[in-house]
Structures are given as structure tokens and as C-alpha cells.
Amino acid sequence: MSWIKDVREELSGLDRSPRSRRNFALVMLLIPGLIYLGIYRDTPPEGFYWWLPLIWLALFVPGLLFPPLLRPLHTAWMALAFALGWLVSRLLLTLIWFILLTPIGFIARLRGKAFLDTRHGRGERTAWVRREKPGTDYTRMS
User: Fold this and answer.
1) For residues 101 and 29, what is the distance between their CA atoms, to the nearest angstrom?
2) Is residue 4 scored above 70 in pLDDT?
3) Which residues are CB-neighbours of 132 under 8 A, at least 6 positions away?
4) Residues 118, 121, 126, 132, CA torsion sign
5) Between vectors from CA 141 to CA 137 and to CA 142, what angle results, nearest 5°?
6) What's the per-residue H, E or C state across the chain?
7) What does each C-alpha distance from 29 to 22, 39, 40, 84 come to in angstroms?
8) What contacts 97, CB < 8 A, 6 or more positions away?
């Protein structure tokens, strides 16, 4: 379970078609552009970075017209996304386990509740529990 190996594996299955890169360019143009316009919709403050949208446009408008230009940027962006997803998923699962499930298990043990029958001392070779066949016939449901 290697972090780098998992990210490489995800990148190997990445859609590298021109359509995918064009969609990437479109999203990268629209989302930061809307954020930028939302921040500076009134009068620009002191030190307004008027050149920032120009650089952004220079990067992604050619990517819309000629998608192979965006290959390195698209791959790097997706590698970052996969790495962050790997980290966040493990972090969230660990937090859920220790914050939610551990106290439930601890309280259940204090109250004597067993969620799983682990007593294997009935003189049988396995812990298999035979169940009776249900009385209802589900083969002819209409």
C-alpha cells in the first residue's frame, strides 16, 4: 500500500484524450475566473493584480484550441488530485474509526454485547451456524 504506487496506478488509467484536456481547460478557465470576478466585482483594491487573469487566459485559451499543450499541466494537476484524495480518504477513515466506531465498540463491550458470535467451544469443528430454510418461496414472485 504505497502512496506513490497508488498515485502512479491512478495516473496510468487517466483519460488523456483531447476532449478530456479540453474539459480540463474549460474548468480551469471558468472556476478561477468566476472566483476572481467574484472577489473583484467592485472597485479593485490597492495592489490589484490585473496581470493574473492575463496569465491564466494565456495558459488555458490555447489549451482549449490545441489540447496537447495542456498534457503536462493536466497530468500534474491530476497527480496532485490523486495524492490529495489518497491522503484525505485515509485520514477521514481513520478519524471515523477512532471517533465513531471505537467508542461504540467500547460501550458495547462494557454492556456485554457481542456483535459477532466468536465462541467456538461447542465441541464442533467449525463456527458455522446452520439456518433453517425459510418457509416462503421466492422463486415465483409475480
Assistant:
1) 42
2) yes
3) none
4) negative
5) 150
6) CCHHHHHHHHHHCCCCCHHHHHHHHHHHHHHHHHHHHHHCCCCCCCCCCCHHHHHHHHHHHHHHHCHHHHHHHHHHHHHHHHHHHHHHHHHHHHHHHHHHHHHHHHHHHHCCCCCCCCCCCCCCCCCCCCCCCCCCCCCCCC
7) 10, 16, 16, 22
8) none
The pLDDT of residue 111: 93
* Cell digits of residue 89: 480518504
pLDDT of residue 119: 67
Over residues 8-49, the pLDDT tens digits come to: 898 898 888 888 888 888 888 887 777 777 776 666 666 666
Give this prediction's pTM. 0.62
Contact 24, 62 (CB under 8 A): no
